[in-house]
Amino acid sequence: MPKLPTEAGKKRSPRAWAERVVRQIIVRVVEPQLDQVRSELATVRAETLAEVRALVAESKRREIDREAMVNRLIDIEEMYRRDGLHEGKTHLHFGKID
Prior knowledge:
rod-shaped
């Protein structure tokens, strides 16, 4: 059986030695990697949030554009009816009056 390291002349039990080694591995290896992963995750979250916000803004802009187009078509229809163009006197095609 291998000799276990001693601390200040005391013999250490195999379990205590293993626990110390595991703690050192956690402190030296796992925790720094965990911090890096947390940092990367925060970056990804921020980027994702920014992308979602941009998509929402684009969607709202398109909705406003769509509403403006509908309102414009309603205005054109009202003009068309008001000017009597719907009575067969003339025809409206692609924004041109024949």
